[in-house]
Amino acid sequence: MKFTINRNALTTQLANVSRAIPSKATIQILTGLKLSVSNEGITLIGSDSDISIESFLPIDDETLNLNIEETGHVVLPARLFNEIVKKLPLENVTIEMNENFSVTVTSGKAMFNIVGIDGDAYPHLPEIEADKRITLPTASFKQMINQTIFAASNQESRPVLTGIHLQATSNYLTAIATDSHRLSKREIPVDINETQLNFDAITIPKKTMTELTRIIEDDQTLFMIVAQQQVIFIADNLTIYSRLLEGNYPETSRLIPTSHQTEMVVNANEFHQAIDRAALMSHEGKNNVVQLTVDNAVVELSVSGNEAGHVAEIINTKTAGGDDLKISFNPDYMKDALKSFGDIAVKVEFQSAVRPLLISAETESEIPHNQLLQLLTPVRTH
Question: The pTM is what?
Answer without folding.
Answer: 0.93
